[in-house]
Specification:
- It is a single chain.
- It is built from 9 helices and 10 strands.
- The chain has 261 residues and is an alpha+beta fold.
- The protein has 2 domains: 115 residues, inorganic pyrophosphatase (n-terminal core) (Alpha-Beta Complex); 122 residues, Diaminopimelate Epimerase, Chain A, domain 1.
- The chain has a 6-stranded mixed beta sheet. A two-stranded antiparallel sheet has the order 1-2. A two-stranded parallel ribbon has the order 3-4.
- Strand 5 and strand 6 form a beta hairpin.
- Helix 1 packs antiparallel against helix 2 and helix 2 packs antiparallel against helix 3.
- It starts with 17 loop residues before the first strand and ends with a helix.
Length: 261
């Protein structure tokens, strides 16, 4: 299929190859999107900002892209690689989930144009919705109930947060990908400007998901903790125990929200 915007000046022939896995396990078997051709960099590719410590010697970052899957589509089009139905489903999955089902502010006209091209390549949107959003195992619902029970809200600054202990996945017999979207429940609370989800990974490490509404930039905030992402969605891996990390980030978030009120 022809790309809606076929000119990507950064995608030039040079050294290196690119391979990125884009499909999520619960949509079925993983689909590796492989471009067996030379590209112009040996480094990271992403729709968020490239931060220090990224793999490789250079990177491609386009913060206007709705998802890394959109950039993979661009590269495939520039290099004349066939978008098969399986690949189209993998790319559509990345775009659908990173835009919250095409509801978030990163849902741009270009995002929808690329999604339309993927539909033309064989994606069935109702089937994708069912497989991604309407096929949750019972354990995921029970896990969600536990996590929602930890909800804390500071209405004075518009901050909401959730927490999860290190044994929750095993206790409910679910996988890490079943956590997708849980932080959105905190963001959905009226008046919330920033939502946080703290997941204790054990071994003195906590994974933190940041979400925002309005003009609050969680990408910049997450970068102060060694993470990054988009203005409305970011993440970080922070050393420390759950209570320690949560207290530190919640206080920093309160300070930011007060300063930008």
């Amino acid at each position: 299929m022809a790309a809606p915007w076929p000119t990507m000046p950064w995608a030039k022939v040079g050294s290196g190859t690119f391979c990125r896995e884009t499909a999520r396990p619960r949509t079925g078997a993983r689909t590796a999107v492989v471009l067996p051709v030379p590209l112009c960099w040996d480094g990271a590719l992403g729709s968020g900002a490239v931060t220090a410590g990224a793999a490789g010697t250079s990177g491609v970052s386009d913060t206007t892209a709705c998802a890394t899957a959109e950039l993979v589509y661009d590269i495939a089009q520039v290099l004349g690689w066939e978008i098969t139905p399986d690949v189209a489903r993998a790319l559509y999955t990345g775009m659908l989930t990173d835009t919250g089902g095409f509801r978030f502010s990163n849902t741009t006209p270009r995002c929808l144009a690329v999604a339309a091209q993927l539909l033309a390549c064989g994606v069935d949107p109702e089937d994708m919705y069912t497989r991604i959003y309407a096929s949750a195992p019972a354990g995921r619902v029970r896990l969600m109930a536990d996590v929602l029970g930890t909800l804390q809200v500071d209405e004075s600054v518009g901050l909401s947060w959730l927490s999860m202990g290190p044994d929750a996945l095993e206790r409910h017999a679910v996988r890490a990908e079943d956590l997708d979207g849980i932080v959105e429940h905190a963001r959905s609370i009226a008046g919330t400007r920033m939502a946080l989800f703290f997941r204790d990974l054990g071994h003195n490490k906590v994974k933190v998901s940041f979400r925002s509404t309005g003009s609050t930039d969680v990408n910049a905030f997450a970068r102060t903790f060694g993470g990054g992402g988009h203005a409305k969605a970011a993440g970080a891996l922070v050393a420390g125990g759950l209570g320690e990390v949560r207290d530190k980030i919640v206080e920093a978030a309160r300070a930011l929200l007060r300063a930008t009120a």
